[in-house]
Structure formats: structure tokens, C-alpha cells
Amino acid sequence: MHTLLTKYIPEASIPAVVHLLESFRVKLKIVNVRVTRHGDYRLLPSGQHQITINFTQNKYRFFVTLIHEIAHLVAFEKYGRKILPHGSEWKKTFQQLMLPFLNPQVFPNELLPVLAQHFKNPKASSDTDIKLALALKQYDIPNGKSLIFELQEGDLFQIHNGRVFQKGPKRIKRFECIEISTGKRYLFNHNAEVDPLKNQ
Known about the structure:
By secondary structure, the chain is an alpha+beta fold.
């Protein structure tokens, strides 16, 4: 397990993470990127805990996602299966699990203040925290994509399945965008990753 994790999370965090995974006998799966989520936790019919994480070469994104999913496991074990997945019990557990890792041995100094702010009230996804999403993006391998809030209103963009949209106005926490081929309106999170297109 130690050797496997060396490729995915910061070196200084590995002993503690291995201890957590082995203590709960977690089956860790690393899979190709799924658009709708970075990771998930489930209790298998056999009673074994399984955590699935999207492959990424960004060790800090992978690490935050892994601790997020371990927090689900620990919260369900401690408080029972009827708690809300991202309710107060999960938030408290996530904060407690992450606190020992919020140091310069694990994270770059530039990330620490952003993480400290995020963990005052952790969100259901790091993607919904604009500052954290931008900070983590700095450690991704450049892929030519943009976050939708970086585009100008009226700009065209393409999503993962090839559909093309025009960015519209902000509606509270999301952007209302029009699909070019159908004229239908859809709401996009601020941090949706898209391929910018040259306006026709």
C-alpha cells in the first residue's frame, strides 16, 4: 500500500494514511476520470469498505479527495448510516481527519491558507469552493481547459461530450448557459471545467 500511494499523495502523509486505510480494511480503487465526481465511498455487500478515487497526477487534489471519502467511512461508522452524507457529522469528521495534515510537510505554503479557510466549513465538493478549486488547479498538468467563471459572458465553450454552449449571466451561484444546437438553457457551476471555443 505504501508503494502504491507514493504515486498519488504527498510523501509525508503516507504513514498516517496507510494506518487509516488498514485500520478500516479499505479496498482502494483508482479509476479513470469520471466527470460527475472525484471519488466515492461505499460499503460493499461483503461488509468491506471501498473507496474509489479518480486518477490524477495532482497529489494535493487526490489527497483532499481521499480524506473526504475516508471521512464518510469514519462518520458512518461513528454516527450510523442515517446521517446526511455531507451533514454536520461528516464535516466535523473531515475537519478532524485533515487537521494533522495541514502543515508545510504535506502541502505547499501557498495552499495552506486556502485549505485552512475551506476547512472552517468544508463543502460537499472542493469544486464548489472557488478559491480552493483555483488553488488546486495550479498543480494540475496544463490541459488547455478553463473554469467557466473565467470566461466572458457570450463566450462559446464545449463540454466533455462535445456539446457546445454559450455562457450567459450569473444566476445566484451558477451560470445560465444556452446549448447552441437546441437553444435550451442549462445551469453550470462556477468551477465547471470546459474547453473554450472561438466565437463564430
